Amino acid sequence: MKLASRLVTARGVIGVKLRRQISSNSHSVAAMEGILECNECQPALRELAVKILTQLAAMDDASSSFSAGSRDKLAKSLLGIFTDRNKDSSIRKPAGQALEMLSAKRESNAVVILQQLNGNVVSVLKEMLLNSEENESRISAAEILSHLLCSRYTRDDEYLAEELKKAIMDVMPEVLKEMLQCGATGREIQTGAEADHKGSFSPPGTVDVEVQDDGTHQNTFTSSHQRNSGQNVDTDLLAALLSLTATIFEVSQVQDLVQLVDAVTPVDAAFNFAGKLAEMVQRNIVERSDLRRVDRLRILKPTTKMAISMMRHRDSSLANDDDKDMESLINCLGGYSIGMDKLDCSISLADCDHGAKPQFKPFSSLVKEAQELWDKKKGQAS
């Protein structure tokens, strides 16, 4: 099994041939499907079965002998494992990651996944995204929902695309609140709420960081979920929430976005969404010297996409031409875009190897687009 798992991930022509040979062996495929369904089997063995079957199911139709029935069976098994809280996390985690890969690699898999669980896949994933106590499960749920929204098969079906978007929109207010508060202390959230209620707005960079008795700074992730898994996992979760939100922003009409922002705006508050984004970047990027460049990129890139979506809606209240917070956000993003292209390309290539979609636009290009949109918006106002 270990050898087979290495063979199916081989690159190039040799890798394609090996995967084709394995997928055409019905007895081998059936054996691995049996292991995946075997609750008595060792988790490590089942994890290998997940890895092998997922690689076979992710192959292009032209080079695959993996049947449609096998893909359907695999999606059903993976969702059954991933959404069952009674299953061991050692098998649930790879099942969730496999669903991420399947939904990203082959767009037709989106339809297969949506048909499972009696058509209630989105509802189940929404519940996991909001209420799971496991960061890994929430991350996978967010990534799967994002990939389902991006799928050409769901976009081409106008009814399906609209229903999927509406379903995910239901949870977005909670997602936005958590995303915007990421990295804030409990006192900062309370202070921010009081400031909003008074009609004032704290500009980016004025973050209240608690000082402990030993003189060290505490910058915790405080929201409706209490995290105990370390800052790295929190960064992964923030990146996943940002990615899902950026996708929602890209596929939504202006009235949907305005309603979404209104849903997280305190009553009678001078709330500025761009300003809140800038504060989130300030806490999680500017004030964290320990953050790896790759994690900075995973936070900054979807943030830039959100800013672009807001500015494309010229006549909305999402980005006014006199919005100093939006200008501050764009300037901050521009400062971090310098020297990021090589890393960005490397991440894109690695994502392609692991099943992510090949569509790619460098961070620097996104920042340039955001800057051009902002300059155009200000020029039209003058």
Task: Give an account of the 3D structure.
The protein is mostly helical. The protein folds into 2 domains: 2-169, Leucine-rich Repeat Variant, CATH 1.25.10; 175-211 and 220-381, no CATH class. Helices cover 68% and strands 1% of the residues. It is built from 20 helices and 2 strands. It has helices at 2-7, 12-23, 26-37, 43-57, 68-82, 89-105, 108-114, 121-131, 135-150, 152-156, 158-169, 172-181, 186-197, 231-251, 254-263, 273-286, 293-312, 324-337, 341-353, 363-381; strands at 210-211, 217-218. It has a two-stranded antiparallel sheet. The longest helix has 21 residues, at 231-251. The protein is elongated.
Q: Any chance you could write out the topology, listing elements then pairs?
A:
Elements: H1 2-7, H2 12-23, H3 26-37, H4 43-57, H5 68-82, H6 89-105, H7 108-114, H8 121-131, H9 135-150, H10 152-156, H11 158-169, H12 172-181, H13 186-197, E1 210-211, E2 217-218, H14 231-251, H15 254-263, H16 273-286, H17 293-312, H18 324-337, H19 341-353, H20 363-381
Antiparallel strand pairs: 1-2
InterPro entries: ARM-like (IPR011989), ARM-type_fold (IPR016024)
